[in-house]
Design brief:
The chain is of the alpha+beta class and 178 residues long. The protein has 7 helices and 10 strands. β1 and β2 form a beta hairpin.
């Protein structure tokens, strides 16, 4: 019996003292860092389940002209929050040490709002498709990035990491490259 109790107790003690515990809910006025990252009371928070274009990323609008879609996502999110209190429920931490959380304003899920408006994409690797149906609605309606062409944010970041420049990494010539 004690053979089973000791490892379990050791595991609980290790978890309790390792600092791996997630913070409790975080609520307050948020600063928008980019389209999927906020800061509340000095804590960086990555919105769970989505990926928004990077701040330097460019997309093509329905007029085929380049625009800063990453900056647009951040600006629209800031405008939507409008200084109201943001409430976040931590889910995990990411490899950069940010808290990954589901956040809302007045009971509106911020990740869902961003995807619904074509300002971010469902990230099925994390969300397991939670925002897929609202993403399809945004695509059918031609909202945000769906109005023109774009490179998915994870491919944009990979291109930049390999030494590419924002304009070249943003415009592959293939709409919705995935």
């Amino acid at each position: 019996m004690f053979e089973f109790v000791r490892p379990a107790l050791a595991g609980l003690l290790l978890a309790a003292f390792s600092g791996a515990a997630l913070p409790s809910d975080i609520t307050g006025q948020a600063t928008v860092i980019d389209g999927d990252t906020l800061e509340i009371h000095g804590t960086r928070i990555r919105l769970w389940g989505i990926d928004a274009p990077e701040s330097s990323q460019l997309c093509r609008g329905d007029d085929s002209l380049l625009y800063r879609c990453g900056a647009k996502a951040a600006n629209e999110l800031d405008r939507f929050i409008a200084g109201r209190a943001v409430s976040c429920e931590p889910v995990s931490t990411d490899r950069y040490g940010r808290t990954v959380a589901a956040c809302s304003v007045s009971d509106v899920d911020l990740a869902e709002w961003l995807v619904r408006n074509g300002l971010a994409l469902d990230w099925p690797r994390c969300s397991k498709g939670k925002y897929d149906s609202v993403q399809r609605q945004a695509e059918r309606a031609g909202r945000g990035v769906w109005a023109g062409s774009y490179v998915v944010p994870w491919l944009y970041r990979a291109c930049i990491k390999q030494g590419g420049q924002p304009k070249g990494c943003s415009d592959e010539g293939n709409p919705h490259l995935q």
